[in-house]
Amino acid sequence: MDYFLVVLFQIAGTVGNLALISVGLAVIFGMMRVINLAHGEFIMLGGFAAIFGVQAGINIWIAMLVVAPLSVAFLGIVVERLIMRRLYGRMVDTMLASWGLSLLLIGLATTFFGNRVVGIAAPVGSFQIGTYSLGAYDFVLTGIALAVFSSGYALLRFTPAGLIARATMQNREMASSLGIEPARVYAITFAIGAGLSGLAGGLLAPISGVLPTMGVAYVAKAFITVITGGASVITGTALSSVLLGSINTVSTFLTTPVIGDVALLLAATIFLRILPTGITGRIFKGAP
Amino acid sequence: MTVMALSRSGGVHVALAALAALAGIVILPNAAPLYTLINVTLYMSMGVFALSLALLWGYGGILCFGQSAFFGLGAYAYAVAAINFGDTTLAAVFAIGVPALFAAGLGYFLFYGRLSDVYLGVITLTVTLIFFKLINSTGGDAWRIGAARLGGFNGIPTTPLLTIPFTRIPMSPAQMFIFAAISLFSTYALCKGLIVTRFGRAVIAVRENEMRAELLGYNARRLKLAVFVISAGIAGLAGLLFANSVFVSPTMFSLSMAAQVLIWVVVGGLGTLFGPVAACFALQIATAVLGKLGIVDPNIVLGLVLIIFVVFVPGGIQPAFAALLHRLMDIRADRPVAGEVAR
């Protein structure tokens, strides 16, 4: 029974983790059809921002939840202005340019921050289930992921801003002829997406440490989660995080963490063969 | 006019490339220091790798993010086969055959599932990452294929060198260099020839408009699969050459390897063959020099190059250069020739 509970908590932790690292990419891809391969580096920079914040004496929660997302969102605005703006509608080119950006950011981070892992201590301890000890921080992550997703859902579903965002996503020309400026919507969306990646980075800093090349490990996972999720930004990403996170955790428990990751990737590949447009391409169609 | 017509037909390019390869084979092994020779061999292996994606992406229109999967697979197939058989000639066949076979299976899954651009990119990238993860975790004695230890993170440092066929004498660096030069040239000639055959033209037609090609009776899925398999075989050959100039390691499957080859094709020019090879050489030399100087991180330069080319030179260097050349020629000819206009 205890063991079962532990597995269940682990699944919740993995799902929360996966959802957090994917949501920034999902917002940018879902809204703008831009595949941001520098997503992993946004996460990395969020991590660095949080760590530098803590080192500068800021409260760890403020560093993770405010400093990290804001600084990466600011970077997102700069990137959108300088690069992405010129490439809208050219999906492959945005992908390549953001890959270039990813290499550039890795290079810059290595030069300025050094090629070593830096970390901060997790702000919460652990707790006991029977004879097992679990990190409470995983719960914090899952809770924040839940909060991000439900507020994202509410924002898109119930507010005027969400309506505008969804309209632009569905039909750019129509939205623009109704007086909405797509360029502005895109700029804001990119900044929000980048900010969410930064938030993920800040939150991951205490558990995984931060390293200039850490983004590589996240980008593929995030990418696959988003594509498996399909067209709906929030619902799709949440569903595919649950699906892939569970598969990952269960196979990790049965075998090794490496096989767990491989199982996640394989499952996604097979899944896309069955549902080429992702989960929300078929089921829950039209949910935000 | 004759110059223009000739420059447009592929034969001259192939002849020029043959000349360059020949000149390289004759001059470099005698003139250059060993260090340069080995480095150029390595660059040429990468050149073959660049050609594999230049063909697949530039002419087949298939954007494969995980071309490095075939590259690494070829190298591992070679190393494992060579260690087990003790004979490298057969192992070289494995290096090309195994990735091609793997591509046939994977491609069936992809193209017959009608997966398009982004999804194709994601899945091929995933496949490469799966290999990267799996191979990295194969440390220790338990992971072996026959007599070959996979070596996990360390790769297979004892990768046997190619021997001269039917003998047991490993090739010297000079011979290896010649072999690489011949391979690079043959691959170039093969790709160049392939794109003017009926098959090649059909592949290009599918790239241009898949539905129209299908309505004209071409089996688009089979054509895509075929070009995918050929490209994987070429990438396997590149892996074989790489394995012989460095050694086999999991980094061959890494994301940066997959990124590099894309960068070469983008910088060289999508839909060209010479451009990607030239870009591959230029960028590798640049990276090596920068790495040696240690002033800037090579990633910064590669990243900047990629961004600048995508944003400002979307066609790549070869088309930009060719346009410049044609403009210069037009100034000299100063009026269009009737034959040109008619075409």
Helicity level of chain B: over 70%
Query: What class would the helix/strand composition of chain A place it in?
Result: mainly alpha
Mean pLDDT of chain A: 86
Low-pLDDT stretches of chain A: none
* Main beta-sheet strand count, sense and barrel state of chain B: 2 strands, antiparallel
Largest interface: A-B, 38 and 41 residues
Notes on the protein architecture:
Chain A is an all-alpha fold and 288 residues long. Chain A has a single domain (2-282), classed as ABC transporter involved in vitamin B12 uptake, BtuC. Helix content of chain A is 76%, strand content 3%. Chain A contains twelve helices and two strands, in the order H-H-H-H-E-E-H-H-H-H-H-H-H-H. Chain A has helices at 2-32, 39-55, 60-82, 91-113, 137-158, 160-170, 172-177, 182-208, 215-229, 233-254, 257-274, 279-282, and strands at residues 126-129, 132-135. Chain A has a two-stranded antiparallel sheet with strand order 1-2. Chain A is globular, with a radius of gyration of 19 Å. In chain A, 53% of the residues are buried. With 343 residues, chain B is mainly alpha-helical. Chain B has 15 helices and two strands. The longest helix of chain B is centred in the first third of the chain and has 26 residues, at 34-59. Chain B is globular and about 60 Å long. In chain B, 48% of the residues are buried. The model of chain B is unreliable at 1-6 and 336-343 (pLDDT under 50). Classes of the chains: A mainly alpha (288), B mainly alpha (343). The A-B interface holds A 35, 83, 86-87, 91-93, 95-97, 99-108, 110-111, 216, 220, 223-224, 227, 256, 258, 261-262, 265-266, 268-269, 272-273, 276 and B 63, 109, 113-115, 117-119, 121-123, 125-127, 129-130, 133-134, 136-137, 255-256, 259, 262-263, 266, 296-307, 310-311, 314.
